[in-house]
Automatic annotation (TrEMBL):
Gene3D superfamilies assigned: MetI-like
Protein name (database record): Peptide/nickel transport system permease protein
BP GO annotations: transmembrane transport
Transmembrane segments: 42-64, 115-141, 153-172, 184-205, 236-258, 292-313
Length: 325
């Protein structure tokens, strides 16, 4: 065999032995993070429950038997129908029963979930953007700017978050014109919860920024003439996002509970746009008269949602902790 043939044969063998490059999904599936997730029953179950609840809320108009907040679809004769029991007057059966106005409890839970999740996610996003921005500025700029931001955060931490949210909600609702209060109630609720929850993001990001600001890559960026905002956004921010993601996941459960608490106290979502907290407040009035299902099923849904998100946040904190690797 000639030298050219032998070279071609060796080239063919090397090409055959060359491994096929893995796809991005394959690399992600074989990562340490994915391996930890696959071997954590708590994370899998919590993710499945949270995903199921979120999908049920998103597709509520398709899943719910009726629109519970459409006055034309209500029948007062269906009021107080127990779960799975035919109504004595209309002979209609409802999976989770009906409330005092004849609304299907299953449908009200699906539509209430939409409000609770929207408020919770929006409030966490607002708190995260505000807290991360202030934390980056405080940690990178330092000096009197850092002192002012952190002292405001320390003062806010001396008060319970729910009281801060109630105070902000009351002030914001007071300055809103009377005719727009119900329309703006959801946005005011998001503002109140977000402003009461930014401190945790700011404190964590500030501490991480102080560490990253002394690294060589930040010093190099300064030497080549990069401005402070560009350094904070393009160099420091990507390196402090891991703890922010963990805090955001845990804060989501707390924001949903805060919304339910405010709505239960009557200072949250309006009756025209009831959330899970509003449904629990309505059901609480009928608990001792025997209509237990009006309170029980919305409360059980809120518990499942908050617990699954909280467990997922706890697992995420452990999975992203470099000391546990």
């Amino acid at each position: 065999m000639s030298d050219a043939s032998q070279g071609a044969s060796r080239h063919t063998d090397a090409s055959a032995e060359k491994p096929t490059p893995r796809s991005r999904f394959g690399r992600a599936w074989e990562s340490d993070f994915a391996w930890k997730f696959r071997h954590s029953p708590v994370a899998i179950i919590a993710s499945a429950v949270a995903l199921l609840i979120v999908l049920a809320a998103i597709f509520a108009p398709l899943i719910a038997p009726v629109d519970p907040f459409d006055p034309g679809a209500l029948n007062l004769m269906n009021g107080f129908t127990p779960p799975g029991t035919p109504n004595a007057f209309t002979n209609e059966t409802f999976l989770l029963g009906t409330d005092d106005q004849g609304r299907d409890v299953f449908s009200t839970i699906l539509y209430g979930l939409r409000i609770s999740l929207f408020v919770g996610v929006s409030a966490v996003l607002f708190a995260m953007v505000l807290g991360v921005t202030l934390g980056l500025i405080a940690g990178y700029v330092g000096g009197w700017v850092d002192t002012i931001i952190m002292r405001i955060a320390d003062i806010q931490l001396t008060f319970p978050s729910i009281l801060v949210a109630m105070l902000i909600f009351g002030i914001a609702k007071g300055v809103t014109p009377v005719g727009y209060r119900d329309q703006m109630a959801i946005w005011v609720l998001i503002l109140a919860i977000g402003l009461s929850d930014w401190v945790q993001f700011a404190r964590v990001v500030r501490g991480a920024t102080l560490v990253q600001a002394g690294r060589e890559y930040v010093q190099a960026a300064r030497l080549i003439g990069r401005k402070g905002p560009a350094i904070m956004l393009r160099h420091i921010l990507p390196n402090v996002l891991s703890p922010v993601l963990v805090i955001a996941t845990i804060s989501l459960a707390l924001a949903i509970i805060a919304e339910a608490t405010l709505s239960f106290l009557g200072v949250g979502a309006p009756p025209t746009q009831p959330s899970l907290g509003t449904l629990i407040r309505i059901g609480q009035g009928f608990l001792f008269s025997g209509e237990w299902w009006i309170l029980f099923f919305p409360a059980l849904t809120l518990l499942a949602l908050a617990l699954s998100v909280n467990l997922l946040g706890d697992w995420l904190r452990d999975a992203l902790n470099p000391r546990l690797k």
